[in-house]
Structure formats: C-alpha cells, structure tokens
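Narrative of activities, Objective 1.

The group set out to show that a structural description can be obtained from nothing but a protein's sequence at a throughput compatible with the screening campaign. Below is one input-output pair from the validation batch, recorded exactly as produced.
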Amino acid sequence: MGMFHDLCKVDNYTCTKKPAISPLLEGDSWEYNNATLLPGHGDKSVMMLQQHIQLTDEELYCIRWHMGAFDDKENWNSYGQAVTNFPNVLYTHTADMAAARILGV
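Output recorded for this entry:
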C-alpha cells in the first residue's frame, strides 16, 4: 500500500530536458500536469494498480483513502466507514502524512 498509494502521479509530471548545471547537478526540471486523461488521486491509483495486480478489499480501501479527510466533504462519512471496517486505512493515512509533513518525502 505504501509503495503504490501515489501511483496516480506517474502521468502527472512531465520532464523538461535542460543542459546540466554541473556534472553533479542535472538541469532537468519536472512540472506538474493536472490535465490528464484520468483525474483523481486514491481512486485513480486503485484503477491503475488493478490493471496489474489483484488487490484485497483492505488494500483497495487503504490506497483509495490514503488522503484521509483531505477529500471532498461529502465523502467524509465514507472515509469514516472505511476506517471502521479497516483500521489500516487510518494508519496508511497517518503514515502518508508523517512521510510528507514530518520527514519531507
């Protein structure tokens, strides 16, 4: 779940090739592209991943809801139900937040 929760981002970045600044620093830059054929985040990751492997229900919900309540307000009840049924949903979200906001990865 940790490895694939952000699979959706794979087609959201485009690389602009630039000359290297120095032998140690590459000059390429990455730009975020939100105009993709399939928008979304957790749900998009699930759809992309299921083309390659079969997910358990718990894996599916953990990946779908890894953003926690950082979703549309009308989905908060569904998120809460997912946490009730699969506590790892909450732990996956917590781990994602710790990695992004505390560790900076």
